[in-house]
Amino acid sequence: MAPHALEPNGAIHGSHHTAAGDVKTDPFTVDSPNVVYTDKDIKTRYTYHTTSVSQGANGNYIAKPKETVYDFKIERQVGKVGMMLVGWGGNNGSTVTAGIIANRRGLVWQTRQGPQAANYYGSVVMGSTMKLGTEAKTGKEINIPFHDVLPMVHPNDLVIGGWDISGMNLAKAMDRAGVLEPTLKDMVKKEMVNMKPLPSPYYPDFIAANQGDRADNVLEGSKACMAHVEKIRKDIRYVPCV
């Protein structure tokens, strides 16, 4: 895999993406009798080859080729996708949220090393490429962005929500985490101050002891209480944040 999937101008490929619900132009198509394209989906048939081994009466092994046929159908229209984070107000949850907002808005902020633009470096799906094949005439290897292999949701389109035992809004949680540059925090704070985790079950046996003082946003009841399960199910059906 190449380290990053870049546009000709140096930007990460996919930073200018088609909004959820739209069908974008395919970066490549497969010319095969096993692949069929329609306006709504891509249908493909794949034959998996393996070998079944049995032992004969005299103790020798008998190898028999085996084929398993799989039929796949992939919708070309990417729907809306929600991402619910457990511990949304923690270091990881607040940082991921700020990173998605920064990429969504195409932010550039100042650091000690100079200006830094939002990107998805480090993401296998968004920042890497894979080999498509070899060009027939020149023998040149053709690589494409990993996220262009199949229709998939872009991280900038994710609808974000989650739970946390701390009721602190995401802007304050981001300050508490101390991960991001102050200049970037100032740029995303206006959005994140309106994001607040949903109440979470609190089972001390599964949470570090030093987190107890933060537990001000918890559901009533015990681990044996089915009301917790029903509440989480209702939360998943509706994500109140962006």
Averaging pLDDT over every residue, what do you get? 88
Any idea what the radius of gyration is? 24 Å
Helix and strand content put the structural class at alpha+beta
CATH architecture of one domain: 3-Layer(aba) Sandwich
Large-scale geometry: extended
Strand runs, count: 9
Distance between the termini: 32 Å
Helicity, in percent? 10-25%
CATH superfamily of one domain: NAD(P)-binding Rossmann-like Domain
Strand content: 25-35%
Q: Give the uncertain stretches in residue-range form.
A: 1-16
Counted by DSSP, the helix tally is: 5
What report would you give on this structure?
This protein is of the alpha+beta class. Among the domains are: 35-75, no CATH class; 82-111 and 150-237, NAD(P)-binding Rossmann-like Domain (Rossmann fold, 3-Layer(aba) Sandwich). Helices cover 21% and strands 26% of the residues. The strands form four sheets. A three-stranded antiparallel β-sheet has the order 1-2-3, with no helix packed on it. Strands 4-9 form a two-stranded parallel ribbon.
